[in-house]
Amino acid sequence: MTERILIKNLSARSDGPVTVSGWVETVRDQKRVQFIVLRDETAALQLVNVATRELNEEEPDSAAKLAITEAISGLAHGSFITVTGQLKKDERVKLGGLEVLIETLTVVSEAIPETPITHDSSLDKRMDWRFLDLRRPEQNLIFRIQSTFVHALRTYWIERDFIEVHTPKLMASPSESRAELFELDYFEGKAYLAQSPQFYKQMAQAAGFGKIFEIAPAFRADPSFTSRHATEFTSVDTEISWIDSHEDVMRLHEELMAAGITAVRDKHGEAIKELFGINIEVPPLPFPRIPLEEAKRIVAERGYEIPRSDADMDPEGERQISAYVKETYGHDFVFLTDYASSIRPFYHMRHEDDPTLTKSYDLIYNGVEIATGAQREHRIDTLIAQATEKGMDPAELDFYLDFFRYGVPTHGGFGMGLSRVIMLMLQQTSIREVIYLFRGPTRLTP
Prior knowledge:
CATH topology of the largest domain: BirA Bifunctional Protein, domain 2
Largest sheet: 8 strands, mixed
Number of strands: 16
CATH superfamily of the largest domain: Bira Bifunctional Protein, Domain 2
CATH architecture of the largest domain: 2-Layer Sandwich
Strand order of the largest sheet: 6-10-11-16-15-14-13-12
Structural class: alpha+beta
């Protein structure tokens, strides 16, 4: 089989014979010459054919040349083809200064001429035809960026002796509460889709693993239709033992983010600038830290009052505090710390000098919350008391509470939405643009 060459690798080759494959982006069928813009998973290339419009029995290979001309004339946008020909460098060619003079052309798969979507189609329409929408160079780049970002996180963890775990997504009982929970039939009983790996991350600390991470699906039965919510998403989670406070978790978190963004900048910075018009900047360390109540005061001074004084930051509050941090510190990230125990889960550790506050944080990136982290409560009596205070029945948490009856070190960690990070990094208006196949309250296909 002739070696197929990726288009991005052609510039490093000398002029001469090559084989390329991809889908037809455009065809210009002129009287004497035909041009095809061919795109593969890496780049686009101009193909050229000197057209033969009729059979000349005296000319060698006339029939083959006529067949190529006729095949090109009939090509529809999106058809997959393989071409062999002569690579030629020509600075006049806009697509990378390269073209291939066609010698043979094979139509691997024909496309229907009428394309169901265009670049101007609505987001919902593009989601209906996601496999076609993903052919756009911007979409291709998004998932290369995601791959690079995730690889950088894994590299950071592995180099520091973290253990990767794969926690179950089918659970016998709710992971945190019965809110936003998917319930399903499971043989003779019921099961629940995991909202997070929280309890199992903590189990790893009781098991003596020390430092763990997971990148895996999570599920929330949240009927939201906002630009940043999905019912199935990829959660980035880590948990570490022997910490002194949530400050240790934040330090790990900011180092991870800097490592991931550095890798994206180094590998894709030029392409991101070309396709998205964005300069990727690595955030300096440490990230700013602002207690939640102070953040609320700052937002109020900017003219916006959080509707409920006892509540978390709302989306407008997140945008306002991010604007303040950008103006004051020139930073895209901010940790909001010391959340009230009334709005945090029972397993968040509380401050010794003020039990109304937890040793927890949210990480805000470009105006949107992307993660929640905390030091966890590891003392069994305190856990039972805090769960009871929240109106939970400790008997229903027995499998979880057992972790703490046999010894567990101080520990903490965070959970982060991968797609939100990529959306905000690339300044996209909807999380749907950066999820391979989006799932929401009204979408289960394709």
